[in-house]
Design brief:
heterodimer, A: 112 residues, 4-stranded antiparallel β-sheet, B: 113 residues, mainly beta
């Protein structure tokens, strides 16, 4: 079956631009997670959805970061007024039971 | 403060031999541990997991051992193959924390032919 897909795979933004990153989870997976991975680091948790409900957004680094999953399937991570420190790989994962999470290929964001 | 630690940034083994990757954790609330493999420019690929109620889980060439008293787990790959060359991440989660994964920094494994 199809895995988790993310788009775009690569995004270059000028500082101050807004960006939107898309995640298509595995069909039937109710849980969806976003992580941020800086170069040479492990992924770090950003936010978690169960269906359309955002149950945990404790990892979002600032109020410039916003995520939504309006119909309980596709999710979008939006970053407003991007800064250079936002440059990272953004990973999306979905899960049926929350325990085993399956990841997409990630979106590499570079802010110039 | 790192709650999940992988103290070896890199490991090199010969093809056919055993690879042992280690991971330590500090949070006693963690009750599920997972290993992921990551190739460059790809997302992490789930390999194997273990619940805290077990001390061993095996899947083909991959075995994970958990020592709760020492807060230590290890991933054994036998026999190692060149295609196993990748970065391996240890991750942990807790039921009371929405199962968000807490990750180590990874160990880069090179399997030499």
């Amino acid at each position: 079956g199809a895995g988790v897909s993310q788009s775009p795979r690569y995004k270059v933004a000028k500082r101050g631009q807004d960006v939107a990153l898309r995640c298509d989870p595995i069909s039937g997976h109710v849980s969806l997670f976003w992580y941020q991975q800086a170069l040479g680091q492990g992924p770090e948790f950003l936010t978690y959805f169960q269906n359309e409900a955002q149950l945990d957004k404790s990892g979002l680094p600032s109020d410039r970061f916003f995520a939504e999953r309006p119909e309980g399937s596709v999710s979008t991570l939006k970053i407003q007024r991007t800064q250079q420190e936002d440059s990272a790989v953004y990973l999306c994962a979905s899960s049926y039971d929350r325990i085993e999470q399956f990841f997409g290929p990630g979106t590499r964001l570079t802010v110039l | 403060d790192q709650q999940v630690k992988q103290n070896s940034p890199s490991l090199s083994v010969q093809e056919g031999r055993i690879s042992i990757l280690n991971c330590d954790y500090t949070n006693s609330m963690f009750d599920y541990f997972l290993w992921y493999k990551k190739y460059p420019a790809e997302g992490p690929t789930f390999l194997i997991s273990i619940s805290s109620i077990k001390d061993k889980n095996e899947d083909g060439r991959f075995t994970v051992f958990l020592n709760k008293s020492a807060k230590h787990l290890s991933l054994h790959i036998v026999p190692s193959q060149p295609g196993d060359s990748a970065v391996y991440f240890c991750a942990a989660s807790a039921a009371g924390n929405n199962r968000k994964l807490i990750w180590g920094l990874g160990t880069s494994l090179a399997v030499n032919p």
